[in-house]
Design a protein that fits this description.
The structure is a homodimer of 209-residue chains. Helices cover 46% and strands 17% of the residues of chain A. By secondary structure, chain A is α/β, with parallel strands linked by helices.
Chain lengths: 209, 209
């Protein structure tokens, strides 16, 4: 169904609408879907549909009341998608994810990292804990972590995945290039950065999407 | 067309076949699509199709000659997708990408980083250069860089994009959450890590894909 397909895509665009509205100085009393679309490089119809899904209906052609629109976006973003993730594997990629400051605008956070290498334990620059791996399960249970991020070497990924499932996470975001064996009720998203870059070059070499 | 759609997907799976074959010790004389599929968690039909696209035809049911299959994969992977990328923005994410050691198995590399902050210039742990931004265009031209990776703050992304286009790159891999204005002949891939994590939480909250 097309409508189902749009829901997450809409959701992930909401922070962009919010940051655009926040950046307006002075904030105009009204703002049109066309103006928002123009500023963000989206189609006007898409913007109208996205905002309709959030607010459950259309708006007069004069535009949205800007502060109401912003308040609505804040409220939806606060309600939806909030939650804590934990990360296992504090190597280069893992540490960058742990320190990445872009998550907060989406209402999500990686709250702590775990590693079996004692040399990397401690606090990150931004004050997040990197804890020993044997603290993973109790930490997840205590903090009700819902997503586990895996950024460990290939040969450790399945064991870490099993621990995260045991710890009660409901979704896995996996940066290690493996296929995980995992219960069906757990959502998995694989992120293969190397494959993404390779695919870009492949397109340049004339392979088609 | 379905067939078109499979080509890049096939391409990005090839390194997984290669690393599986390389990991076999001792290497068997023959190997079947079923055995490869089982080891990697893929469907047998998919493996057969992927390898057929690479080798231009079917194989007898006894399986592939393992060393010929490996040699074929090496050859395709060497030919396809090879190339150098440059990165602009040596913050946390940028530096992690620059130091990420997973690209090489896909035959691609980020060869150098650029930044306008003199404090981050120099060599990375793995010996890659982080150069001042005014060296970007001459460097790209000299090294024939084909892909530019953008990992700068939002307000600098468009300027950096314009420089990369001027420098002759053919594709942009953008980690900054913006929409770029860019000539049509340039391929752009946006990577929004925060949106990806937020989308995982959204699915847990009952939003459908």
């Amino acid at each position: 169904m097309k409508e189902k397909g749009t829901r997450i895509a809409t959701f992930v665009r909401l922070p962009l609408y919010r940051s655009h509205l926040r950046s307006l100085d002075p904030m105009p009393e009204h703002i049109s879907a066309a103006a928002i679309a123009g500023a963000l490089g989206f189609g006007e119809v898409q913007v109208r549909k996205d905002l309709a899904l959030v607010f459950g209906g259309g708006r007069p052609r004069t535009g949205y009341v800007t502060k109401d629109l912003l308040a609505g976006l804040e409220s939806v973003l606060e309600r939806r998608g909030a939650g804590d993730a934990v990360l296992v594997g504090a190597g280069k990629v893992g540490r960058a994810l742990l320190e990445f400051d872009g998550f907060s605008s989406y209402g999500v956070e990686i709250v702590a990292g775990f590693d079996n290498d004692t040399a990397v334990l401690g606090k990150t620059d931004s004050g997040k804990d990197i804890l020993p791996l044997d603290k993973l399960i109790p930490f997840c249970k205590k903090h009700k972590a819902r997503v586990g991020v895996i950024a460990v070497p290939v040969d450790q990924a399945q064991d870490v995945c099993d621990m995260l499932v045991k710890a009660g996470v409901q979704a896995i975001w996996c940066f290690t290039p493996v296929r995980l064996e995992i219960p069906n009720h757990i959502i998995v998203r694989y992120e293969n950065l190397a494959a993404s870059l390779a695919a870009l070059f492949a397109r340049l070499d004339g392979l088609t999407v």
